[in-house]
Amino acid sequence: MDKPFDGWLSEHRIERVEAMSPDPAGLPRGKILPTAAFLEAIGSNALRFPSSLFLITVDGGFVEYQDLAEIEEDLLLVPDRNSLTLAPELETRTASVICDAIYQNGAPAHYTPRQVLRDLLDKYHERGWHPVLAPELEFFLVRTGADSIGKPDHGPYGIESVQDHGAFFDDLLRHCETQSIRVRTLIREAGKNQFEFSVEHTDPLTSADQAFHFKSAARRIARRHGLTATFMARPYPTDFGSAMHIHQSLEDGSGNNLFADAQGKDTPLFLAYIGGLQRYSPAAIPLLAPYANSYLRFGSDMSTPANTHWGLENRSVGFRVPESGRAARRVENRIPGADVNPYLAFAATLGCGYLGMIENRTPTKPLRTSAYGRKSRLLPGHLLSALDALHRCRRLRELWGNVFVDIFIAIKRAEYAAQARSLSPWELEHLINNV
Q: Which of 29, 33, 28 has its CA nearest to residue 44?
């Protein structure tokens, strides 16, 4: 239910408001206003920022797309009342609200990340389908400026590893509770000083908002404790990578799971959804693996499938179906890295599944053996080849719009070019003196 702004802000004695929107990398961009100024701005359509902020690269550069970068037309920020929440770790009583971006005439800016997901959900709802998602976010904690935090390492699922950083996790869990981020579990993951938060399943937009808030909060709170929380897909070449596994199911308007029938058997809709994941994920992969580093994680075979096989209780495949009854029937997409923009990652996995259902795609037979080492159904192994596949995919362009696809590809090519102009540690070690 919508939360009236003025009453809610007054009730919580809010002094200032963070009005933000996710940029292409999933970072918060926006303005911080005193409460009175915020209420005045939304009442007079004065809350706005330039469209060029949705053309920004992760390193702060801008790409050119038609006239957007040069004209820098203002977009109106429309706060989503349902995303209104406290920002509890700040001294001044502050609220956060996530905004959608629209043009002056009221038309949505369809190329902005949150709107890409909104538009796709509208397509689902037109058919009476209601997707439900639950992400699992992995990240590493490192001492700022060092390769490790210097704490004992207790191995996968070690309770003591979490306890070693109790102050950080206490603050983070309090933050999650205040921001209504519904944490289900916190565990020590397989990598050294790697952890995973999983949250309760909910509608995709709320879930994306929660993941967006969580990543931002983890980074901010870690800095206060002299740590860095990194969601980089593979920060250590010889250690495990970090994923954002996405559990997804589909309900009708009454809350019945459409992926299993009354006898608990897989429905044709469920199989078509998996067929869509298999057919379109190779082209959608830049939204699930958005940086060159993302593909180092794929190459590790360390609980990291780089394929489009599927199977029951099989973690070597890209699309795992956990053992479950009817109510919990779902598929887990194990491909996305933790470095994704959650809005775009959700739009990618839901988009592939949507196309599979409307095209009545037939999946392969479920794989009952290991997918590692197989040469079939492999994903692109490099960012540039992945971008080429997305560029050529007519169906995904129709689904997300040419403007978004072209802008996203331009941003990723610019980021790759910037990285390619930097000397890597390998080059400094092996080429300077040897060639």
A: 33
